[in-house]
Amino acid sequence: MAFKLPELPYAMDALVPYMSAETFEYHHGKHHQAYVNKANELAAGTEFESMSLEEAAIAAKKAGNQKLFNQIGQIYNHNLFWESMAANGGGAKMPGNLEKKVTEDIGGYDALRAALLDKGTTQFGSGWAWLVLDNATGKLEVTSTGNAETPLTDGKTPLLTCDVWEHAYYIDYRNARPKFLEAWIDNLANWEHAAKLLEQGPLKIAA
Ligand code: MN3
Fold first, then answer.
1. What confidence tier does 144 reach under pLDDT thresholds 50, 70, 90?
2. Ligand 1 mean position to 43 CA, how many Å?
3. Quick one: average pLDDT of 188-196?
4. Residue 16: per-residue pLDDT
5. Among 7, 85, 110, 158, who pairs with 188 as Cys (CB 3.0-4.6 Å)?
6. Per-state percent for the chain, helix, strand, coil, to nearest 5
7. pTM above 0.85?
């Protein structure tokens, strides 16, 4: 089973004016595709080839195969990133189960927004901002990771992610990462998808 580039869950121009079709042409069509191609090249003929993406990420990390992990991690992270956005998304309105949990664990929408902005802005260099469910405590957390790292390998279930690599925002926002993050949280964040993943509960993967 080869790793595959998923179709985008919307048209390339669906998130205009917050994310352009040109960004998707490069980000999905070139960057994400390149991670898929490289992962398949590195995994060919190995035990990783037959694993799910989540299993392969955890197994490659555990095996110390950082070269393969980087490609697999980036496929997983981008898959979730596309699902983490929707036209008319963002803002304080979110499904009841998620809203309740955000209030209990993070202190409400304003605190969640501030934490995502802070984690995304202060992540030095390339990386990701996340809303995750901690598998052990069952609580929501806002976090960030560098490069291809994913909370998946750290006992967390990712619910929502924002790509803060420069290639995610340079065409539309140039160097203004905070502006991109604000626009993202206020207009694109797909709370419905995060709520669906929350409903499914902690990921159970034999690592
Ligand atoms: Mn990216």
1. very high
2. 21
3. 98
4. 98
5. 85
6. 55, 10, 35
7. yes
Residue 25's pLDDT band (cuts 50, 70, 90): very high
Kindly give the distance from the C-alpha atom of residue 31 to the centroid of ligand 1, in angstroms, as a whole number. 7
Cα of 162 vs centre of ligand 1, distance in Å, is 9
| 49-62 confidence digits (pLDDT tens) | 999 999 999 999 99
What is the CA(24)–ligand 1 centre distance, in A?
Answer: 10
Q: What is residue 9's three-state secondary structure?
A: coil
Instruction: Answer whether residue 128 is part of any domain.
Output: yes
Neighbours of ion ligand 1 (CB under 5 A): 163, 165
112 and 79 share one domain: no
Round to whole Å and give the CA distance between 27 and 163: 10
The verdict on 104 and 180 lying in the same domain is yes
- Residue 170 and residue 121 share a domain: yes
Over the chain, what is the mean pLDDT? 97
pLDDT at 65 over 70: yes
Considering the domain architecture, whether residues 47 and 119 belong to the same structural domain is answered as no
* Best CA proximity match to 172, nearest among 190, 192, 188, 150: 188
- CB–CB of 70/146 below 8 Å? no
Cβ atoms 8, 28 nearer than 8 A: yes
Q: Provide the b/e sequence for 29-44 (b: ≥16 CB within 10 Å).
A: eeebeebbebbbebbe
